Amino acid sequence: MSNRNLLGLLGENINHSFSPLIFNSYFRKLNLNCSYYLFSISKNSLSGFMKKLRNSLILGLNVTIPYKESVISCLDELDPIARKIFAINVIHNDKGKLTGYNTDYTGFKRALRKYDHLNLENAVILGAGGAARSVIYALYTLNFKKIVFFSRNRKRINRIMRDFYFIKVLKGHLWEEIKIKAEIRSSDVLINATPVGMFPDENKTPIEIDFQLKDNFLVFDLIYNPRLTKFLKGAKNRGALIENGINMLIFQAMESLKIWNREIINEELFIKNCEEVLNASISNSW
User: Fold this and answer.
1) CA distance linking residue 158 with residue 163, whole number of Å
2) In three state form, how does the secondary structure of the chain look?
3) Domains of the chain: which residue ranges?
4) Least confident residue range of 12-16, 217-221, 237-241, 253-257
5) CA distance 133 to 10
6) What are the phi and psi torsion angles at 23 (to 5°)?
7) Residue 2 in this model has a pLDDT that exceeds 50
8) What is the pTM (predicted TM-score) of this model?
9) Rounded to a whole number, what is the largest CA-CA distance in the chain?
10) Fold matches, 6-102+247-281 and 106-244
11) I need a surface site. Which of 17, 131, 182, 234 has the fewest CB within 10 A?
């Protein structure tokens, strides 16, 4: 890496994040002169922080809730994929030039690969934030025949439908449990792209799954802490295959490092390191 070897996570109320553990453990194993920190910034302070970032020693940032979309106005450029998704989770600071990237998209897509044998074609997404945008674009590139998302925010729905005008199989609806459950029954995969159920609010769930799911139905929760959310627990009890956000976290983190480092990453070592750290840190087994 360059002499500017500071990295971090930009978000709000992010003390629960495991990103510093993942990255710093990897840096120690390779004796890299690099450190990863948390930058918990309030919405009112975001603009000032981003201005200072340009002249700082911070080489790059991951970006999480609630800034995956709003921080874009503070950047100079977007990677082509990030421009299509219009949500970013990685920033590269190249001598004061700030470029945004989206590795959530590649992380989710790679995590979904293990289910290729299921021939998934129809998806329901809960949420309409930056993570949901990444999932929508990933499913589009995987040639899903139907993609339906739900949100309580009409403006967000309209914005996504406008930005993803080229995805003809995409539909957005206001949050109605009866309609959500009807769509679930006619789909192959259900994805929670909201933060509902994340630590420390583990007793919450975006929706109660109170009916039997069809064979080989997949429920994917982007949350990774806790490992088994109330949402996933309910899905498992109804016969679903379940996947949490751990693999997506690992894969998106690895792609982030490739952007900052501009060098070949030892993927096997990085994945093994992440699994060791997360297995030791996150309770609640499958």
Assistant:
1) 9
2) CCCCCEEEEEECCCCCCCHHHHHHHHHHHCCCCCEEEEEECCHHHHHHHHHHHHCCCEEEEEECCCCCCHHHHHCCEECHHHHHHCCCCEEEEECCEEEEECCHHHHHHHHHHHHHHHCCCEEEEECCCHHHHHHHHHHHHCCCCEEEEEECCHHHHHHHHHHCCCCCCEEEEECCHHHHHHHHHCCCEEEECCCCCCCCCCCCCCCCCCCCCCCCCEEEECCCCCCCCHHHHHHHHCCCEEECCHHHHHHHHHHHHHHHHCCCCCHHHHHHHHHHHHHHHCCCCC
3) 6-102+247-281, 106-244
4) 12-16
5) 19
6) -70, -45
7) no
8) 0.93
9) 56
10) yes
11) 182
Q: Which two tokens stand for residue 242?
A: 């379940």
Q: Which of 43, 68, 233, 258 is catalytic?
A: 68
User: 50-53: long-range contacts (C-beta < 8 A, 24 or more apart)?
Assistant: 50/74, 50/98, 53/91, 53/93, 53/98
What number does CATH give the domain 106-244? 3.40.50.720
Place of tokens 């109320």: 13
Give strand pairing partners of 77. 99
Superfamily assignment of 6-102+247-281 in CATH?
Answer: Leucine Dehydrogenase, chain A, domain 1 (3.40.50.10860)
Is 114 known to be catalytic?
Answer: no
pLDDT of residue 8: 97
Length of the chain, please?
286
Q: Determine contact, residues 177/210, Cβ cutoff 8 Å.
A: no
- 45-76 pLDDT tens trace: 999 999 999 999 999 999 999 999 999 999 99
In the chain, pLDDT over 90 holds for what percent of residues?
Answer: 89
- The single-letter code of the amino acid at 140 is Y
Backbone angles phi, psi at 44, to 5 degrees: -70, -20
pLDDT of 281 > 90? The answer is: no
Residues 6+ apart with CB under 8 A from 252: 89, 103, 104, 106, 107, 108
